Amino acid sequence: MHKLVISVLLALMITIPSVAQSSDSQSGIDRSKNEQEDFYEQLDLLMRIFERVRSEYVDEVEDKEIIEAAIQGMLRSLDPHSTYLNPDVYKQVRVQMEGEYGGLGLEVQMENGVVKVVSPIDDTPAAKAGMLGGDLITHIDGDSVVGKTLTEAVKKMRGAVGEPIILTVVRKEEADPFDIEIVREKIRVRSVRHRIEDKTIGYIRVSTFNMQSGKSVEEAIGKITNELGDTIDGVILDLRNNPGGLLDEAIRISDAFLDRGEIVSTRGRRRQNNNRWYATSGDMLHGVPIVVLTNAYSASASEIVAGALQDHRRAIILGDRTFGKGTVQSEIRLGRKGNQAIRLTTARYFTPSGRSIQERGVEPDIELLMPRPKGVRRAPRREADLNGHITNDQKNLDRDGEVDKTEAETNSASKTAIEGKAEDVKNADKADTDDASKQEAVDVQLRYAIKLLKNLSSLPKAQMAEVRK
């Protein structure tokens, strides 16, 4: 192993400079002799430190762990979102992104050292087998879960479709623990939920952007419009606490509400990272008013959707300023098996008007903050609060180098028209909202959005068109 590691490091010393030279020659930059020597010296320093750690550290350490830590440290020194995905982490990431996995269909949490079932998901193997919310899982295939992390327990419950698993369950109504055998099936992660609010308002909640999200939003729009027909007063798109996900799904969801125009663009060092995406013809809601709910935890893909709908005056953004993650991470697969990867920041996102959301986030058209939970005094952390974050160097310049209008000027046309009705809602419902703000269980932002859409629906069509300009 010792000789292998040394060989790998020596190979790096030989090959990396040649790759760098080739890349630099393409960009027209020549490295000086001193720079090349410094490069070799730094690699030599890395190898010597590695050798000292291997031979002299107080406890014996695994070569693989040291090298992985060095890779991780290198990437994390760049920004908070560049990272190394080892085979185990990469597998979990793929499950999250694909939105499907072989499993049981349980929402679980750790409680007193065992796995507690929060709820079985409808129409899944767990629900069909009779698992109930509140059940405690003490053993998985005879192996105790005590001492395991929740991640380890969940990993053990997942597996190949068609494989059986035996869970030992403790239930309040039962005197003794008992076993339940469940056969794993393909589980679809439900990232989109929808319902009808106040009889005439469609509500769509997107919790993450995985491979199922765009299709699920389109299906939700279809079901809402079929159910409400001409009585629909508006749709609420809830992106609160959505950490983001796949760019393609953010574009598809934005496209569902837009009829034309740019959705998002990316710009980076390399030409291949400079791209623009445009909406296709056809707004699935045919101009029905939309309110998008955001908060400080709406990030990345959520901000792309909110920014696109805001710039096109297609939706009113209501809530709190978003997280401010406006960078693109490219997933680069590594290894002979392709079962590990790095996520490397390669570009920045820009909204249709040319705004960079990095550090800044998307400012709501109507700011309405949720009451802070009891005992929580700190303001929410955003991208700008993360150590080593990439700064926004846009400095109020748009893509053509012209000074942007201020936020107030940019949104004045729509805000003036909107705020007239918005203020009516505030005044008419002030006492109700004040009371609601004292109750954590009441979603004041959702209530406000519903009343806002109800009021907007009463506007004449000509005035509504002015609001959307």
Please report the number of helical segments: 13
Radius of gyration: 26 Å
Structural class: alpha+beta
**What amount of the residues lies in strands?**
15-25%
Return the CATH topology of the largest domain: 2-enoyl-CoA Hydratase, Chain A, domain 1
CATH-level-4 superfamily name of the largest domain: 2-enoyl-CoA Hydratase, Chain A, domain 1
Shape field = globular
What is the typical, i.e. mean, pLDDT? Answer: 81
CATH architecture of the largest domain: Alpha-Beta Complex
Unreliably modeled segments: 1-21, 396-440
Q: How far apart are the first and last residues' alpha carbons, in Å?
A: 67 Å
- Please give the domain count: 3
Q: What is the percent of helical residues?
A: 25-40%
